[in-house]
Amino acid sequence: MNLDDVSPLITLARTTTPFGEITIFRNRETGAVAYCHGDHYQSEADPAGISLAAYVHALHALVVQTQAHEVLMIGCAGGTLATMLAATGQAVTVVDIDPEAIRLARQYFALPPGVECHASEGQVFLERSPHQFDAIVVDAFAGDSVPANLRSPVFFRLARERLVPGGCLFFNMFVAHDLDADADRVAALMAEAGFTVRLLDSPGRTERNVIVMGGAVTGLTSPGILLRPTISADDIVTELAQMRFRSARRRAARADEPASKG
User: In the structure, how many helices (H) and strands (E) does the chain have?
Assistant: First the structure.
């Protein structure tokens, strides 16, 4: 018997790239499509490409609040944030180190043809392109961690140079629990690069996303849902309501402290 005949998930595609195995699933009951890199789910969307992840809706609403027009996204996976930003009128450029991710996002996640895409490592793209953006979003993972070069002082200084005056940097992190200081370390490095920094967090939750923001971010307000997916919309609204702005925790933010993932 084929396991796809009994599983709620249908395998739409599976491919191995130099950066790992990518599998695309569809839920036969809801129609949701998921992008899995190795053992990690990196995107999930309704059939129109609207994300089912609350943090993606938070990023979308925050970028829209800044009134950014030209937005650079480093990290693609299913490309759901790019799809949503394009739907609200932003001009989006996507950079991903794996060209297969871009192809799969277009084929299975409704990434619009008008979204400009580049197969490149994020820091290399910024080094080679002198273009300035209104906002930069970093949502790039190797497993459950952001690659080390994308969370370095060199990268944050470069990102600041590639932002227009008044531009904003949004950096998605994954933390294990309240004592995990990874997001605060990134906030400290962004501050050292000259950014005004805030974090959007969901205190008390384990294994959660934290958005570290730099630039003209002090006036941003709590994000709401702007594009309602056909699946799990009420759950997303509930998660967004639990998110809180906070400052970096200075005691935990020393860059030379070991990461806590236990």
Answer: 7, 12
Dihedral sign, CA of 49, 162, 212, 37?
A: positive
Q: How far apart are CA 114 and CA 110, in angstroms?
A: 11
Q: Which of 216, 250, 256, 252 is nearest to 62 (CA)?
A: 216
In three-state secondary structure terms, 20 is strand
Query: What DSSP string describes 195-241?
Result: --EEEEE-TT-SSEEEEEEEES-TT------SS--SSSHHHHHHHHH
Structure tokens at 80: 């759901």
Give Cβ neighbours of residue 189 (< 8 Å, ≥ 6 apart): 151, 152, 153, 156, 255
Q: At 63, is the secondary structure helix, strand, or coil? A: helix
Q: How far is CA 107 from CA 111, 148, 221, in A?
A: 8, 30, 34
Q: Please state, in angstroms and rounded to a whole number, the distance separating the CA atoms of residues 54 and 130.
A: 32
> Element (H or E) spanning 40, and its range?
strand 40-45
3-state secondary structure of 188: helix
Q: Quick check: 71 and 37 in contact, CB under 8 A? A: no
User: pLDDT by residue (tens digit) across 218-262?
Assistant: 999 999 999 999 999 999 999 999 999 999 987 554 444 444 333
For β-strands 91-96 and 116-119, DSSP reports them as parallel
Chain-centroid distance of CA 158 in Å reads: 19
Q: What is the spatial distance between Cα 220 and Cα 133, in angstroms, rounded to a whole number? A: 18
pTM: 0.92
